[in-house]
Amino acid sequence: MRILVVEDNAALADGISSALTRMEMAVDVVGDGTEADVILRTQEFNLIVMDLNLPGYDGLDILKRYRQNGGKAQVLILTARDTLNDRVKGLDLGADDYLTKPFDLVELEARVRALLRRQSGFKSPEIAIGALIFDSVARRVSLMGEPLDLPRREFCLLELLISRAGQVVSKEQIADSLANFDQDISPNAVELYISRLRKRLAAANISIKTVRGLGYLLEK
Amino acid sequence: MRILVVEDNAALADGISSALTRMEMAVDVVGDGTEADVILRTQEFNLIVMDLNLPGYDGLDILKRYRQNGGKAQVLILTARDTLNDRVKGLDLGADDYLTKPFDLVELEARVRALLRRQSGFKSPEIAIGALIFDSVARRVSLMGEPLDLPRREFCLLELLISRAGQVVSKEQIADSLANFDQDISPNAVELYISRLRKRLAAANISIKTVRGLGYLLEK
DNA sequence: TGCCGGATGACAGGTTCCCGACAGCTTCGG
DNA sequence: CCGAAGCTGTCGGGAACCTGTCATCCGGCA
Lengths: 220, 220
What we know:
Largest interface: A-B, 11 and 12 residues
Shape of chain A: elongated
Order of helices and strands of chain A: EHEHEEEHEHEHEEEEHEHHEE
Strand content of chain A: 25-35%
Oligomer: homodimer
Number of domains of chain A: 2
C-alpha cells in the first residue's frame, strides 16, 4: 500500500510517516504543494494524507485538480479545528475523511485502516486463497492454520498480488508499489521477492505464475 | 488495444506512435481531419489521441460528430498551452482528458494507461471467438477454458488479428504493427508467427486463413 | 511440370528469469 | 555499546524460453 503524506510541518510529517510505516505501508512525504501536485500527476497512491494549510498553496486546489484528472486514491484531510468550512469544502471536492488537529496517531491509524478497507473493496477483511488466509485489516497472514510472519517487502508483494489476483502484475508495477522515492527497486530485486515468497507458499501448494515479459500472476 | 492517433505533425505523430507501440498497442496514424472523420465512422478504437489544431479542419468538430454518432472510445486531446478555450470546449464535447503541448512522452503514456484503465472498468474487455477468449486488459488468453500462455509476439499478432477479425490483414501491416522502431520484421518472420499461432489454436479448431498474395484472415 | 508464395523444422543467438551466495543494513536484546 | 539475527538488495551463473534466419518442403496455379 502506497501512501503520500503532504505536510509542511516536518515533525508532524515524521510522526505520521513512522506511524504508517509501522503499519507496513510504503510512505512518501512531501512538504509543499507544488511538489505534491507534480507527484500526483505522475505516480499512483492508495491513500493521500493532506494538510490543507500549506504555505503558499491551497490544499483544496490540489485535491480538486487531482480528482479532475481522474485520481482515485482515498484522501484524508488534516485541518485545524477552527476551519470547519474547509472541511465541508474538502468533502465536496472529493476528500473521503478528515481529521482535526491536533489528533492522536492512534486515531490516524484507525482512519487510515478504515479508508483502505473501504477502497480495496474487500468485502470481508479476510481473503482465502487455497490454504492461505490474508487478513487485510489485522495485516496478518496464515498458511494452513499456522500464522506466517512475512518480512515487510514480501508482505507488501503478497498484498499486491492478492488485491490483483487473477491478473498479471508487471514487475514495474510491483517495483512502483513497493518503492518510496528515495529508493528504487531493481527488476532483479522484484524477482528475488517473488522467489522468496514462492518458497514460503510452496508448502501450501500455492504458486505464483510467471508470465514471461509481462509479469507475475497469482491465481484466484 | 487499438489506438488512433490524429496528428498532422509527422515527427510528433511518429514519436507518439512508437511510444504507444512500445506499450503493446496497435496504433494507426492519420494526418488530416477528413481522413480521421472517415475512419472513425468505419472502424472501432479503444482510444483516440487527437490534436485539435489540424490544418483546414477543426478537431472539435470531429470529436463532436464522433460522440453524436455514438462513439464510445476514450479521447485524449492534444492542444497548445494557450488555447484554454479549446480545452474547456473539448471536455464539454466529450473528451476524457487533455494534454498541453509540449509534453513528455512519459506523461502521455501515463495518461493513456489511466484512460484505458478507466474505460475497462465500464466495459467487459473480453472478446470471444469460438472457444477462444481474449482479454486485452488483463493480457490473458484462454482456449477451451484453459489459460493459454502466449509469447509476446504471438500475443500481439493475435490481438491484431482479433481486432480486425473478418478482415484480411496484410503481411506488411502485421510486420508494421509488431515492429519496434529498432528492428524491422521480415515477411518470413510473419509467416513463422502465423505458423506458431496456428499450431496453438488448432486444438480449439480455430483457423487463420491464408489469402494468397494479400495476407491473413481470422474468421469472426 | 515449373514457378512462386507460403509453411515449417532446426538451430543459433538473445533475452528473461531463477536462485544461491554474499554483504550492507536494521533491529533488538543484553 | 556490542553482537546476533533477520531483512534487503546486488551479483552472476545457469536454465528456460523467445525470436528470427536458413533451408527445405508443400501446394496452388499457369
